[in-house]
Specification:
about 250 residues; alpha+beta; about 35% helix; DNA_rep/recomb_RecO_N; DNA recombination
């Protein structure tokens, strides 16, 4: 029997029995972890209020064995709030839907429990912090998070050089199957011709050029979001359920 301590973000919760919950977290040191939190659904439980989605917490786990992820679910025995990002997210519909899509994306990209995914964890913490503060439009924060999540998981799209032959950009065609923008010689069936402004926006979101992203017109933001959604769907092999509720 072992005690483990880690900090993480609560991705989702599930009811268990009359008063318990199964908490899914993305942790810094252990990747995605599912644990049982006992008694957290009781009205007087302060412990339960700290384990809501979007919360950044310091958690202690109790596991039977030397590994945190084993045959049975560990118990979540202590929790301290690091940052209650949910307070700045759940009161605004646009932020809430964008944040929910971010949580689902993080869970989908960490499908093996117990495997550290530090870059994905840091991306999620930074994305939720930015979203809760309202520093940028929620859909821009979401698209930036999706693009960077794809990048750290090995699916970085190209927005300048041809994704197939490397021809220096700008290149006018875009193909999700090819990996981003492609030249005329590499054009494949199903390629689209997005506006230069939409491609510039996505490049800015991927690299963190927020002045350029914030100044983009709404029609180009919608166009860029469509490309991001299609690209994510291709690599995840199925879409995000929460993405359909995001305001465009």
């Amino acid at each position: 029997m072992s005690l483990f301590r880690d900090d993480g973000v609560v991705l989702r919760t599930q009811k268990l029995g009359e008063a318990d919950r199964i908490i899914t977290l993305l942790t810094r040191g252990h990747g995605r972890v599912r644990a049982v939190a006992r008694g957290v659904r009781r009205t007087k439980s302060k412990f339960g209020a700290r384990l809501e989605p979007f919360s950044h917490v310091d958690v202690q786990f109790f596991a039977r064995g030397s590994e945190l992820v084993g045959r049975g679910l560990p118990l979540c025995t202590q929790s301290e709030t690091i940052a209650p990002y949910g307070g700045g997210i759940v009161t605004d519909y646009a932020r809430y839907t964008a944040g929910t899509a971010m949580l689902e994306t993080a869970e989908r990209f960490t499908d093996h429990e117990g495997e550290p995914a530090v870059q994905q964890y840091l991306l999620l913490v930074g994305g939720l912090r930015t979203l809760s503060r309202g520093e940028h439009a929620p859909n821009l924060v979401l698209d930036a998070f999706l693009l960077r999540s794809l990048a750290v998981n090995g699916y970085a799209p190209s927005f300048d050089d041809c994704a197939r032959c490397g021809l220096p950009g700008p290149n006018r065609f875009f193909s999700v199957a090819a990996g981003g923008v492609i030249c005329g010689d590499c054009r494949v069936p199903g390629s689209v011709v997005p506006s230069a402004e939409a491609i510039g926006l996505l490049s800015a979101l991927l690299t963190g050029d927020w002045p350029t992203a914030d100044a983009c017109q709404a029609r180009h933001v919608r166009e860029g979001s469509g490309l991001v959604s299609a690209y994510l769907h291709w690599h995840l092999e199925r879409g995000l359920r929460s993405l359909r509720y995001v305001e465009k």
